[in-house]
Amino acid sequence: MTAALLFVSGARVAGDDDERGLGPGERSYVATLSGRRRVQSTRARTLLRQGLARVLGGRAADLEVAVDAQGKPHISNGPWVSLAHSGEAVAALVDFDGPCGVDVEDARAVRDFRALASAAFGARPAGTDWTARAFYDAWCLREARFKAGTVGASAWTFQLGPFRGAAVTSGAGAPGCWSRTARGWAAAELALTPAP
Asked: Domains along the chain?
């Protein structure tokens, strides 16, 4: 496994939103946020630390997770990482081969897909329509590719419950998938679909 996709939805675990478990740079960054964004960002960074501890071995608190000027996490001399959150869903992607990107969206949100898609992607070919799935797959892939800073070697879309997402990795294989529940980590029932 050269990449791991880590996912949590709704299942809160003690310490998820406790900023004391974050490193100094992470705490400084989340201090610039407020309300729901602050809680989501803290949960995402906690998931990343816990997932990295699971993938790399060791304790989450011992990991040195730095933050760049835009708040993007990175591991010194470690794997590449990417974070995303939407509603109660948090996703983290860890890639040992190179840059990566992940995005997740709550597909339950009521949106005008045609108007959003037209503004974001331009005209759709005649005879096709923007369904919720088509919109979220295209949107999440675009975001994940942007975060990766490249088109990546592999791109995947996925769904877990009401959440749609995309992952872009540098390696050729599908990422291993893990989901955290109130009882701990388990192999995730994520159906990864290769993306164009």
From this structure: 3-194 (3.90.470.20)
